[in-house]
Amino acid sequence: MLDMDPDLARRLFEEGATLVLLGVPQGTELGIDCKSWQVGPRFKGVKMIPPGLHFLSFCSANSPSCGGEIGPKSGLFLNLKSKEILVAHWDPKEEDLDFSASKNDEEVNRIRDTLRELDPYLGPYPYEVMRKWVSLTDQISQELAVNLQPLSGRVCAFSDVIPELQLRHTKDRAEQPRNDTACQSMREGLDRLPKMKQREGTELRFSVIPEKNYPPGASPAEITRCSMDLSYSLETVLKKSYPDQPINLLGELQFAFVCFLVGNVYEGFEHWKRLMALLCRSEEAMRKRKELYLGLITVLYHQLGEVPPDFFVDIVSQSNFLTSTLQDFFQFATGPGVDSTLGKKAEKFKAHLTKKFCWDFDADLDDCAPVVVELPEGVTVD
């Protein structure tokens, strides 16, 4: 815990928001933003929370007598106001926090009147991570967080999946592949597994990136150009998702990254990679959207500075995605027609990453090989 002047602590207690979390079992792993703890027997919530966007996460745990294993992480984004009090009760059946008490004004006022007595049971917000959290989420507005998180309101590390076919009747089950004989191959075994889908309302609602990165009716030359410069795909995403506020795409990039880094949601990392490729390989867009790309460098500076060092080792070993993507970005951002302010900032960022991670962005690209593109149906090249 950060050492804090008593007067400052008192002011933060009076002005900050409070999460009153009742009945959370001892041993539960609970976190807010970039910090987490195991809950003790006296825990009843978190105090002195600065106003703004926060991510509350929790993992239920078995009792020590049953092994003490920690379950998958769940969490939710909260936009807290100064002096706000939210009350939640632990639901042991669902292993989740039920915030319905926060809608009961009588209970909230009762808690507010007894907040001083409750103070010894409230853990202070970890101010030592506040700067990190703000740097990772400063582009995420309350509206954007609401629009991107699942309709269920919960961000879960493990997908809640159900069979695509419910097979409620014996006749339906009889038509499916039998599982009472040995499989002759891995493919046969995979084919026998039931097809699963994510339960409706639990999906993260990210922007959809077009499968085809060229416009309808494009000529072979246009297809090749759009495959090398992804500006058409980027503009399509911006037009559909953020026509009035293109900068919100950086908020989505931050949201995806935080879902992975703090929420342990692998889908967040996959979407972050897709957005990275889209933004970093859009040469024409860099000439037109200076502010978006100046903001991108700032976002990436904080993201790449806060993840564990071995995180990059894994990425580099997997097709060198990050370094090759950034290599394209630096090549385009310092090319002809790009605003000089953006070019200079890109050069400084490149030097920073080279020094920090010893990455070589000037090595020869494997991408010099011909680009193989998919032609539209019915189009042939003589």
TrEMBL record:
The keyword Lyase does not apply. Residues 206-362 form the AAR2 C-terminal domain. GO terms for biological process: spliceosomal tri-snRNP complex assembly. GO terms for cellular component: spliceosomal complex. The keyword Hydrolase does not apply. Gene3D superfamilies: 2.60.34.20, Aar2, C-terminal domain-like. It comes from the Eukaryota. Residues 15-150 form the AAR2 N-terminal domain. Pfam families: AAR2, AAR2_1st. Keywords: mRNA processing, mRNA splicing, Spliceosome. Component of the U5 snRNP complex that is required for spliceosome assembly and for pre-mRNA splicing. Interacts with PRPF8 (via RNase H homology domain). Component of a U5 snRNP complex that contains PRPF8. Belongs to the AAR2 family. This is Protein AAR2 homolog.
